[in-house]
Amino acid sequence: MGLAVEIEGESLYVNCEETFQSASLIKVPILIEAFRQSEAGKLNLNQLVSITNHVGGSGVLQAFSRDALLTLKDLMTLMITVSDNTATNMLIDKLGMADINRSIKKMGLKHTILNRKMMDFAAIGQGHDNFTSPIDMLTCLKAVNEGSYLKEESRAAVLKIMSYQQFQDRLPGLMDLERVVVANKTGSLPRVENDCAVIKYKGKTAYAAVLIDRLDDVYAGKQKISKIGKHIYDYLLEE
After folding, report:
1. In sequence order, which residues have a C-beta less than 8 Å from that of residue 1 and are 6 or more positions away?
2. 20 to 30 A from 145, CA-CA: which of 9, 49, 160, 185?
3. What is the DSSP string of 102-139?
4. What local confidence, expressed as pLDDT, does residue 31 receive?
5. What is the pLDDT of residues 60-91, one digit of tens each?
6. pTM over 0.90, yes/no
């Protein structure tokens, strides 16, 4: 397990610079790069595209017909909220894997790299996988909530998309979501469970990233992440 948590000047790091399989956490820097390209005038988020190259795993586009039209922003939203793999692969093609990795370096991420598309198990078998670390994911979360890497409008749009997350059985799993605002992104692979989140309560902000691998019981992994989320939640609510 690796984790990185920062709450209003307080911090807790455990194996935070260890490299883990990112699973779908890699979709956060992809989303950031999409908004960066939009700001630079290289990408029109309202451009309509047809669905291509359906892949399995998480998501809904694999059930859509090939003549269905969605905007690039729709793809970005599906990539995060339901972790749609088809949408992700289409965005990787549109943004360019090299540009995404350049953006990762510009953000100062030291252990993160996009080496393959989603559901490319042949690439994994050849040793080409996507990686990140807890501290890198915290840097991503800060980039979408503060700082100058993205403009304020883009940061707000990213957080809004992440706040519509449909997978809430990890960090937010034991929280009362009527009391806190959570914007998170999960990631799963065989024996891997990850989550990262921005959690806000009455002007206070917590950043958290928890990555676990080599699990024999993925349900137990999700429970561990939920318990960590509950500790963060309790700490935020302390007056």
Report:
1. 14, 15, 210, 211, 212, 224
2. 49
3. HHHHHTT-SS-B--S-TT-HHHHHTT---EE-HHHHHH
4. 98
5. 999 998 888 999 999 999 999 999 999 999 99
6. yes
What does the alpha-carbon distance between residue 158 and residue 154 come to, in Å, rounded to a whole number?
6
pLDDT band at 120 (very low <50, low <70, confident <90, very high): confident
Q: What is the DSSP string of the chain?
A: -EEEEEETTEEEEESTT--EE-GGGGHHHHHHHHHHHHHTTS--TT-EEE--S---SSSSGGGS-TT-EEEHHHHHHHHHHS--HHHHHHHHHHH-HHHHHHHHHHTT-SS-B--S-TT-HHHHHTT---EE-HHHHHHHHHHHHSSSSS-HHHHHHHHHHHHT-S--SSTTTTS-TTTSEEEEEEEEETTEEEEEEEEEETTEEEEEEEEE-S-S-HHHHHHHHHHHHHHHHHHHH--
Question: How far is 74 from 84, CA to CA, in rounded Å?
Answer: 11
**Residue 123 binned pLDDT confidence (cut-offs 50, 70, 90):** confident
Tokens standing for 27? 């979709």
The token pair at 19 is: 């490299």
What gap in Å lies between CA 103 and CA 82, rounded to an integer? 24
Average pLDDT of the chain, as a whole number: 96
10 Å CB burial of residue 94 (0-12, 13-18, 19+) is middle
